[in-house]
Specification:
α6 links the parallel β5 and β6. Helix content is 44%, strand content 13%. The chain is built from 10 helices and 10 strands. Strands 1, 4, 5, 6, 7 and 10 form a 6-stranded parallel sheet that branches. A two-stranded parallel ribbon has the order 2-3.
Length: 279
């Protein structure tokens, strides 16, 4: 998956200028009437706990946008630990959205897409170090086939100690908006069946390859037996979210990776507060 060279200096500067402009535009809202603010508070209360979902891909030393350095990932997890974030699983998030469970304070869902070998070699021990949980959405046909992806044995090992939840990222990571209904069903159903056979438990969640989907595809995801699906979209997950297009904030390697990481965590709630994210 490619999101552009976020590490380029001029693009980072452009992004920060946009953030500053949006924050300046927020000033009139800050002076809104008490009645307006009360209505917003009621809506926030009805939507329940807001959950930050982070999206990673690789944790290695490749110095590309999708590869967060292991030392940077460690520092990011340390930041979450120091600021009292509590990691959860997709199942815990789903149960909360359905009103069947309470979440801890400051919940965060840490996800990885594709199932790269470095998730096992680098991310997994760092998550263990901080007592955190994570979720890997795997391309099922790649596991055990390509050396730069985890094996099913490694997937089972990471699940056994409760650190990692393995879920589906389809069979072949094809862009779903380019596929026929028959191909879509194969990607969704076969990946679910294979993962369940290998892991010995239901696989109820999936993430769209490249984050692309439409409402028809979301309906096929539901038809295939998944409880929820994740895309790439800035915003926190709450009861106002589309259960088959749950928001995830992507984390990239940039010129100032950890500074940008903190900014994303801080700005997402501000943007969402004034209706700049959820439609």
């Amino acid at each position: 998956m490619h999101f552009g060279k976020f590490g380029e200096k001029h693009k980072v500067s452009w992004w920060k200028r946009i953030l500053l402009l949006l924050l300046l535009l927020a000033i009139p809202f800050l002076a809104a009437s008490p009645r307006h603010m009360t209505a917003r508070m009621v809506a926030d209360s009805e939507n329940g706990t807001k959950v930050l979902v982070l999206n990673y891909h690789k944790v290695d030393n490749m110095n590309i946008s999708l590869s967060v350095l292991p030392e940077d990932f460690d520092e990011q997890m340390s930041y979450l630990k120091k600021h009292d974030y509590h990691t959860i699983t997709p199942a815990e998030l789903y149960d909360s959205l359905e009103g069947n469970a309470e979440l801890p304070e400051n919940p965060v869902l840490i996800t990885f897409d594709d199932g790269y070998r470095d998730n096992y070699d680098n991310a997994y021990p760092i998550l263990q170090k901080y007592g955190f949980k994570g979720t890997i959405f795997v391309i099922t046909s790649f596991l055990g086939k390509y050396p730069n992806y985890i094996t099913w044995d490694q997937a089972r090992e990471m699940e056994e100690d409760g650190t990692i939840s393995i879920q589906s990222h389809t069979v072949d990571h094809k862009s779903m908006t380019d596929l026929s209904d028959e191909q879509l069903r194969t990607e969704l159903v076969d990946s679910k069946k294979q993962a369940e056979k290998e892991l010995g438990h239901p696989v109820d969640f999936m993430a769209y390859p490249t984050g692309t989907y439409n409402l028809h595809i979301a309906e096929l995801v539901k038809e295939a037996g998944y409880k929820a699906a994740f895309t790439i979209k800035y915003g926190n997950v709450d009861k106002a979210s589309n259960i088959f297009a749950l928001e995830r904030v992507p984390i990239f390697h940039t010129e100032n990776t950890n500074k940008d990481f903190i900014e994303r965590i801080r700005y997402v709630p501000i943007f969402e507060r004034f209706g700049w994210i959820k439609s």
